[in-house]
Amino acid sequence: MLVYLTMKKLLLLLLPASLLASAVTAQAPELDSMIHRANRLGVFNGNVLVADHHQVIYKTAIGIADASGKTPLTTDHRFHIGSIAKEFNAVAIMMLKAQGKLKLEDKVSLYLPELPAWAEKISILNLLQYTSGLPDLNWKTAKSDADIMQDLKDLKQLNFEPGTNYAYNNNNVFLQRRIIEKITGIAFNEFVKRYLLEPAGMNHSIIDPTEKDELMAISFTDDRQSRSLFSPISGWTAVTLDDFYKWATSINTFKFLSPADTRTILYPAGPNKQSGLGGGEMKGDSIILHIHDGSSLSYNALLVDYPGKGRTVILLTNNRQDNLYDFNNAIQAILDGRPYQQPKKSVGSLFKGKLDSLSGKQLLSLYQQLKKKYSDQYNFDNEAALNMIGYDYLGRKKVDDAIVIFEYNTRLFPQSGNVFDSLGEAYYRKGDKQKALLNYKRSLELDPSNVTAKQVIEELGK
């Protein structure tokens, strides 16, 4: 078989190791300049790690560790990573499956017989894929794991039949953790520490941290209000940059799971949905992409990993601005030697509290007014701003308003496969399969790597 190399790749292969290191690290000053500029603009406070060609080429901490502003962040500070911490229970479930201690087809009732009859319908795979039909936690009243379990014991019926729909919520995560405890006979936190953190060399991560723990970054709002670390559900791992990188490497080198079992929790149940590992793509037995974001309180975290390139981007913040994907885009551009856009504040923050009262058309009118006024401070030049608003409408079941937003976004960004994918999803939810198919096909034309579009086109074609 003939193998063709681009000139750039050939030169990289021919370069001595010392010169290759210099070529790779030459991008570090530009990365540093972009991150520091963002901090001066007030749009990033947190820690960053960038690896390329399997080398960490940039690592920094910038900003403050808590609302007081008295303690600077260091690269040793730990951050909550929100939903990314759900990877630990997903991996644990698959480890137990590989050991023959459970089957993904097993019903929840087999391990938690104290739950009502609905537990006889939900499989462990339903929990992993968020297709169980369980409602979300009662965040207003639940104060502990015991409260959550009691709420589940009192639950009369599911929101839908397991496997027929999708609802991303933490009751699925809660029951995964309880099943792990029932099978292993030890607390979930102890299992994570003993069988995941320690084997991965994640010696500085902690589970369910408090404000008293050393080197714990505390999240805060823009008006310097501190956010409590309390959560009614236990089992959340907080990590450092180095530990997070070790975890990402453990996933893409299959330290804990086989490629087949990794695939089960990397691919979601359907288009635009979350899996246990967030999302990504595999080619054969290799991971091509692993991407996952998470939020909790005013924390926000993002992992973007391209194992084949040896490229990893980790972003951790304790002052959430909803702009980490913008930072990743800028970082990827810098690494590829392309022009990039300096991240700004997220436009979404300008519309908080307005989506309930405004229609899609009214919001677009306001959007255009604000764009003229605040274009120097907020990022109106990124498709993500309106995409997030469109998905917010979808979450509120205001599908027609979402379509108005997404259609306008396709006119602003006609070469983006992602915006046509979003519009396709909105039409799909509305039941207009013809327009859904049309937009998914356009998305795939613009982005041939869009696995979701391929799946939906195949489904609709049938």
From TrEMBL:
Domain called Beta-lactamase-related: residue spans: 46-329
PANTHER family assigned: BETA-LACTAMASE-RELATED DOMAIN-CONTAINING PROTEIN, D-ALANYL-D-ALANINE-CARBOXYPEPTIDASE/ENDOPEPTIDASE AMPH
TPR repeats, residue ranges: 417-450
SMART domains documented for this protein: TPR (SM00028)
Pfam family, one: TPR_2
The name this protein goes by in its record: CubicO group peptidase, beta-lactamase class C family
Keywords assigned: Repeat, Signal, TPR repeat
Annotated organism of origin: Chitinophaga terrae (ex Kim and Jung 2007)
Span of the signal peptide: 1-28
InterPro entries: AmpC-like, Beta-lactam-related, Beta-lactam/transpept-like, TPR-like_helical_dom_sf, TPR_2, TPR_rpt
Ranges in coiled-coil conformation: none
PROSITE patterns noted in UniProt: TPR, TPR_REGION
